[in-house]
Every structure is written in structure tokens, then in C-alpha cells.
Amino acid sequence: MSSESTERRILSVLEEDAQASYAEIAERADVSKPTVRKYIQKLEEEGVIVGYSADIDPKKLAGQSIALVGIDVASERYVEATRQLKDIPAVEELYTSSGDHMLMAEVRALDGDSLAEVIEDKILSLDGVTAAHPSFLQERLK
Fold first, then answer.
1. What is the pTM (predicted TM-score) of this model?
2. pLDDT by residue (tens digit) across 97-121?
């Protein structure tokens, strides 16, 4: 088996279960525990694995609203605006986008009103942000 397929199998197990032990990953990827340890360390050092997280169903969280927000930014203010967006605690994730908006942000707050305040007072008030288009998540289907 090639090293690329070994790497892919290990990553596939981690994507399914970020809490899997080295022993579980080794068994499911059909490699040894030292091989798993070596590949994971290499992938972390190379920045391929940037962290481990829990996959959360927003509907099951009491007192929390989540929106995916498409954000448009004036090109001359892009770098500064993205830095400032990363500093907003309610912005959980921030992505560049090739779609309808330059950036996509996952924004979380206690409720819909708080979420609207974050968008209005924190995101739209940033110098260079020209628009914010929220889509409120309602039900997780998968």
C-alpha cells in the first residue's frame, strides 16, 4: 500500500471520529499504532490537521442560535476586515469563498436577537464590510 493511501485512511478515520484512540485508528486503517502516531504527528506539523473538534447538533443546544453569514468586503480593506472578524468571539468559523460572498462565517449567539446584534453591531460595523447575509440554521439533517 502506498503512503498516500495510508495517510488518507488515517485521515478518514479521524474525520469520522476525532476522539478515536491510536489503537482504534490503527485497527480501522489497517496499520500499526506506531504508524498512526508517526502519520498524525507529521500531518499536524505540516498543518494538514489543524485541530480536533466535536460535531454539534445546534438544534439540541438550549439557548444557542447559529447562522451561516455571507460577508462581502471592499477589496482594499479585505486583510484588515478578516483579521477583525477572526477576533469576534461569536464568529466560530471563517472561510474564504468563491461563491456569492467573499467570506462565509459561522456565527453563534444565545438567541436570534443576540445573533442579529452580532451581525449588526460587530460584523457590519467593521470598516470595509459592505454586506452581511445571514442564513439561520434550524434543523440538522445529517
1. 0.59
2. 888 899 999 999 888 889 999 999 9
CA distances from 76 to 66, 84, 121, 128 (A): 29, 14, 21, 8
* Helix pair 22-29, 3-16: axis angle to 10 deg: 120
Run of H or E residues at 133: strand 129-136
Residue with cell 461563491: 99
Residue 110 to residue 91: CA distance in whole angstroms? 13
Contact of 105 with 68, CB cutoff 8 Å: yes
Per-residue three-class SS string for 58-93: HHHCCCCEEEEEEEEECHHHHHHHHHHHHCCCCEEE
